[in-house]
């Protein structure tokens, strides 16, 4: 009996091993962490202090690693140098925002390094970091990387004077006017036309006509008619909420909830137009597919690709995948994972650490061919021509 059981266990184990789906490529799209408000609204003064530093090493004589670096330069934002009290500019990543990405990096360390998928030590051949060229986006990528590897470097591995042995980690950016990890109406004028059209439909107008009461409440609370659109007010409050900065007097959590519903409606209405989400982030989706194809054909050693962007990066990706998420929160992430089982490849998607079944596929592990075909059907054949009709 014991022998039989043992045999059964062994057989079971072997079958398990041979049919196991193995992760081969992990791609993640993230929104930056918590930040200061983008829109300054008069009468909403609060003190904002920013502690994340922009450090630069001189590029002369810098061959990448283990250089003797006598000076590191630091950009310091002047106290009260901007619209806010304190030393933050608008939209700057805060200490808390950096922590959120660092925590996400720790999560990836546990799920991807500790499991043996990624090497114990940073290997530039395995990891690729791509970021929109904004301070908060780059710093979010850097914080995530710190959580993934930096916090696990042993004291004993550092030689005298850490700055002399620091390893350089590339964060790949591109010119903002050509950036496609963000809806870019300069790059794609037709996207601008579609958005304008979507924002002048009867549905859009009717919905906004129904918001007159809420708008009046804003006028009462802020004591002025000179207010930005509700979405911008929400942006300011979202930043305050994330940092426990009190709301202006009279702004209850119930009103905040109503504003967040308006945001959901607007984001959802805009991005659920598939043409809009495709022209917003279709080139990003193309990158995902291309990396998968390279992997399947053994033409790439990359295992972890981080695309660091905005809410407007993560959201259209999710709508293309078939999920109506509205505006994604700070430090949210969509993970698109490629698995291999014998000779078959599968794609699995998670959002905010939860596995999601692609509605048009119906299986958690969606066969790669199904995924690829679906995306090729919705992506334009010629981006340039679709964008310049
Ligand atoms: C902002 O001010 C705080 C408090 O004085 C200080 O700790 C921090 O280093 C300053 N940040 C920058 C970026 O200069
Ligand atoms: C999102 O917007 C679309 C188009 O207006 C609508 O059909 C859909 O029901 C909305 N989704 C949610 C979750 O409200």
TrEMBL record:
Belongs to the histidine acid phosphatase family. CDD domains: HP_HAP_like (cd07061). Residues 1-19 form the signal peptide. The keyword Transferase does not apply. PANTHER family: ACID PHOSPHATASE-RELATED (PTHR11567), COUNTING FACTOR 60 (PTHR11567:SF203). The keyword RNA-binding does not apply. It holds the Pfam family His_Phos_2. It comes from Anaeramoeba flamelloides. InterPro entries: His_Pase_clade-2 (IPR000560), His_PPase_superfam (IPR029033), Histidine_acid_phosphatase (IPR050645). Transmembrane segments: none annotated. This is Lysophosphatidic acid phosphatase type 6. SUPFAM superfamilies: Phosphoglycerate mutase-like. Keywords: Signal. It comes from the Eukaryota.
């Amino acid at each position: 009996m014991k022998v039989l059981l043992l045999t059964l266990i062994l057989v079971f184990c072997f079958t398990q091993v041979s049919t196991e789906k193995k992760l081969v490529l992990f791609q993640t799209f993230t929104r930056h962490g918590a930040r200061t408000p983008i829109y300054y609204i008069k009468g909403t003064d609060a003190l904002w202090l920013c502690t994340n530093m922009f450090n630069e090493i001189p590029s002369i004589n810098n061959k990448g690693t283990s250089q003797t670096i006598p000076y590191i330069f630091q950009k310091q934002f002047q106290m009260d140098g901007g619209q806010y009290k304190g030393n933050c500019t608008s939209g700057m990543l805060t200490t808390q925002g950096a922590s959120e990405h660092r925590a996400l990096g720790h999560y990836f360390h546990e799920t991807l390094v500790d499991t043996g998928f990624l090497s114990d030590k940073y290997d530039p051949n395995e990891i690729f970091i791509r970021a929109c060229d904004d301070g908060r986006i780059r710093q979010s990528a850097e914080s995530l990387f710190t959580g993934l590897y930096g916090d696990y470097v042993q004291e004993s591995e550092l030689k005298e004077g850490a700055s002399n042995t620091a390893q350089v980690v590339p964060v790949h950016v591109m010119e903002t006017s050509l950036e496609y990890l963000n809806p870019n109406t300069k790059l794609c004028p037709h996207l601008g036309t579609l958005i304008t059209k979507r924002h002048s439909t009867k549905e859009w107008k009717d919905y906004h006509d129904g918001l007159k009461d809420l708008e009046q409440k804003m006028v009462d609370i802020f004591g002025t008619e000179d207010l930005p659109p509700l979405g911008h007010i929400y942006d300011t409050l979202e930043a305050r909420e994330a940092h426990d900065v009190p709301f202006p007097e009279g702004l209850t959590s119930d009103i905040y909830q109503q504003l967040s519903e308006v945001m959901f409606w607007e984001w959802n209405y805009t991005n659920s137009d598939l043409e809009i989400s495709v022209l917003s982030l279709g080139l990003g989706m193309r990158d995902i597919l291309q990396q998968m194809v390279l992997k399947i054909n053994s033409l790439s050693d990359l295992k972890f690709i981080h695309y660091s962007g905005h809410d407007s990066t993560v959201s259209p990706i999710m709508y293309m995948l078939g999920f109506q998420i509205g505006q994604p929160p700070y430090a949210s992430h969509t993970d698109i994972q490629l698995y291999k089982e014998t000779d078959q490849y599968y794609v699995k998607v998670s959002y905010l650490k939860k596995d999601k079944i692609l509605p048009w596929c119906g299986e958690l592990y969606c066969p790669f061919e199904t995924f690829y075909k679906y995306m090729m059907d919705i992506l334009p054949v010629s981006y340039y021509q679709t964008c310049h009709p």
